[in-house]
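Chapter summary example.
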Amino acid sequence: MPLLVPYGNELIRINPANNKIEYSTNRGASWIPRYSRSICGTFRDLIPYGDNLLALTDKGVYYSNNKGASWIAKYTGSYAKTFAALQDSGRELLATTIDGHLYYSNNEGASWIRRK
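The structure predicted for these 116 residues follows.
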């Protein structure tokens, strides 16, 4: 579960102590809060995906097109509440669940299909 990802000239992280998205421009020597609202729920995972950041929360999959300053719901269906981690396979987006299942998305996370 990546809590820290390189993104352009910044490092962006989930701070689990206060559920904030923070960034650093000095290789992690100091951190600046970028997003601290609770609308998205509790952040679990963070990955760069194309020109966006994707975040997995306990409410679903969200994306940000402004380096994590704001988040937009991508998928909040029932499966999303069991997602534990996201991964970009290069061809599709993958999500593993807390009970070991694998889901994939071919539409940037808007919908998910369980892989059997």
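To summarize the output: The radius of gyration is 14 Å.
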